Amino acid sequence: MQLSDHFTELLRSTVNLSQFKLDLLDTRVEAIYRALKADEVIGGLILGKVPQGSWAHRTIINPVADAEFDADVMLLMAENPHWSQSPKSYIEEVYAALHRHSTYKEMPHSRKCRCVRLVYSNSMHVDIVPSVRLSDGREVIVNRDEDCWEYTDSEGFSTWMRAQDETAQGNLRKVIRLVKFLRDHKGSFTGTRSVILTTLLGNQVNASKKLADPGYYRDVPTALLHIIGDLDIYLQANPVKPSVQDPSGSGLTFDHRWEQSTYSYFRDRIHKHAQEVHDAYYAEDKDTSVRLWQEVFGAGFKAPAAASSSAKFSTATAAATAATRTGRAG
């Protein structure tokens, strides 16, 4: 059975990052931005900020247990000709600006390949990704390990994501969150990066399928059934790791983000999950369907509290009515 209300509850109470945490993230990123903008060395180069990754795509989920959740923010910067011979200077200077700040110098912060990471204890970490608009018009980010530029089209990816989600009637993002939940909370296909998972799931959304069947993505469970099922068909046809193209049209691939062994494990796990979802969706008995869905997603798959309360109230009312009638009959 579809049990759409159970999926609404699963997403709301278990999978989705809470509004409180999203608001906290907004507040902290804004504070980081103001601090960097006020820095005497790099402040004049900073042009703006743009959320990136799962935060920008609205596919961010609750972390496991007390683990940190993470968010990426693109720090838009003007080109400094003195740094152009050594692109990693942008990461070094953002790191130095945090180190100069009265608050952030006391917090764990480190330089990664493409970002500077700032860690909030037992809460979250923010990856600050310098993005530079070069004089030739290219939008680039920094690869600190190789000390080089990398072309990117972050807005192109976001535009593609919005279009695919619209085709899926607003359910693609929810399906991605559910599948990420399987990876993170249920320990399935660990090692598959979010950008690959998002791209592969998004690639399955096809307007021609909705044209043939207008209800193909009509609700969360139906979209999940079809998207993960179509992904399984694609993966089973490709035993060797296929190339995963950046859907923004940048010409880049994400192939370096995983190995054949990781792909093979992911392929096997998706095959199993596609069958589990199929069985739960088509189970005709509600109790059986709930049990099968819970075997996939855990105890968080349940009726909304209001629905449960109404059901209990209805049962109690029916029992009281029956007792009253029995009394009157006697």
Topology at a glance:
Layout: H1 4-15, H2 19-37, E1 46-52, H3 53-57, E2 69-78, H4 89-100, E3 109-111, E4 116-120, E5 124-133, E6 139-143, E7 148-151, H5 154-167, H6 172-185, H7 194-203, H8 207-212, H9 220-236, H10 260-282, H11 286-297, H12 305-329
Parallel strand pairs: 2-5
Antiparallel strand pairs: 1-2, 3-4, 4-5, 5-6, 6-7
Describe the model.
By secondary structure, the protein is of the alpha+beta class. It has 2 domains: 17-152, Beta Polymerase, domain 2; 156-297, no CATH class. It has 12 helices and 7 strands. Strands 1, 2, 3, 4, 5, 6 and 7 form a 7-stranded mixed beta sheet that branches. The two termini are 43 Å apart.
Distance between the termini: 43 Å
Describe the sheet with the most strands: 7 strands, mixed
Structural class call reads alpha+beta
Average of per-residue pLDDT values: 91
Number of separate domains: 2
Name the shape in a single word: globular
Strand content: 5-15%
Oligomer: single chain
Separate helix tally: 12
Helix percentage: 40-55%
The whole-angstrom Rg is 24 Å
- The helix/strand series, from N terminus to C terminus, equals HHEHEHEEEEEHHHHHHHH
Total beta strands: 7
Low-confidence stretches: 309-330
